[in-house]
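Follow-up to my post from last week.
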Amino acid sequence: MALRTWRPALLIRRLSYIAGILYLVACSGISEPAEHHQPVEFERTLTEVRSGFDYQAAETQALQQDDFANPGLLWVDSGRTLWASECTACHGEIDAMAGIARRYPKFDEAAARVINLNQRIELCRTQQAILPALPYEAEERLALTVALTHLDQGQPFAVDITGKNAAAFHRGREYFYTRRGQMNLACHHCHEVNAGKRLRGEALSQGQPTGYPTYRLQWQTLGSLHRRLRFCNAALRAAPFDFGAQEYVDLELFLAWRAANLPLEAPAVRR
Amino acid sequence: MNRRQLLVGSASLMILTRPLRADTEDKLFDSWLSTQYANQPRSHEGVTVTLPALAENGNSVALTVEVQSPMQPDDYIQTIDVFAPLNPVPHLGRFYLNPATGIAKVSTRIRLGGDQTVHAVAATFDGRLLLGGADIVVTEAACLDFLI
Amino acid sequence: MAKARINIPRNIRRGDLVEIKTLITHPMETGFRVDSLGVKIPRNILTQFSVALNDTLVFQADLQPGIAANPFISFFLRAEQSGQLTFTWTGQHGFTHVETRAFDPAP
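User reply:
Got it. Predicted complex:
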């Protein structure tokens, strides 16, 4: 088609098509920053939330509820002692920190990303108290984490999935529903579709995080949710992420939202 | 299968296989007993071993041993031994008591490497042995776990 | 740094049979576990737990690998004397931990 034969009407029609497309793009908000979105109501796929406590044997439940003999309480004692020597200068008494643990994971300005309580404590330890760095699963980090989480026993999670936490929440939710590993299963398959049914002689729980850090009889010690998630990955023959990996923290945020009104029960005792 | 069915099934299986398993277990226990306590007089009265019938995980099982005894200077229990024949180290521990103890009752948490009868042997101050035991089914045995 | 918990009931009177509960952090490593590389983790257990009232031994336990990790041990004591209870845990590799508590039954 030679340039000489272009007609003004054709040009106007083409320009209006382009304008229309641009208008639709503008209306869909693709170009807008995420924070200005209204929070979307996510469908809760569990009709009833049940704690991992419900899937334990009576003796295990009794041990968790024993105010003296619950082995996890040894770490709570440790954490409180550590707090008294390392943290009171800035934060005062540990009991004044009630209500803090249930809000994690959340976006942290200093870390510039969503982090969990264990990681926030480590930031404080290394950058404020100027103590030597410790690995994620170190006794001191677990002790401080469980000591703070124990203050919120009986309260549900109070996590925010909007604003700066939204992207992490989306990623965590995506993780939960994504198949992985040689067994090609998503968290959803065991912990929602088949929750309550038995796998290798044990009942599948809903995978609720309300008991963490938890004393697992299998580990014979207190451990973090990340340790449990690594085990879940390995069980599917998927390569586990490192302790403290962002994938696990994002998933933690989603799991905390998914737990709805389930009360925190750290330190729990699980098989 | 619910827990009750599992328990009944396991208990039935234990009863059926008891002649085979018990043979090994009894031999192990008897030989240990003879080594420790030679020919001291034995009786099967007064010892209560409290264990759950079914342990979900063998890593931490609550155990209580109680022995009937006045616990007076002229009649008291001196030691209580706990023995799990099918554990890699069958002797779990020994508790030393005296009249000041008041009541011959101890509690602890033990590891179990499989279904078995856990024995308690109480020795009186004058060398008599009182024996007791309890059967237990262990779903996930201790002593063979993995580190993740 | 080991952490121990000790429970002595309150408001005890002379002649009472008092149950004393104890709990301590310790892995009680059996020596049968293997790590992810297949290497056996060496045995590391508590070997003895003893309790003295003033200077008299009132209770002792010899422990073996079959005692669960973070050992819970409870025993009884007839409340006759007052004084100080000393709880001593000893284990392999020079492990030792001592706690003291007052023992004061009302007359």
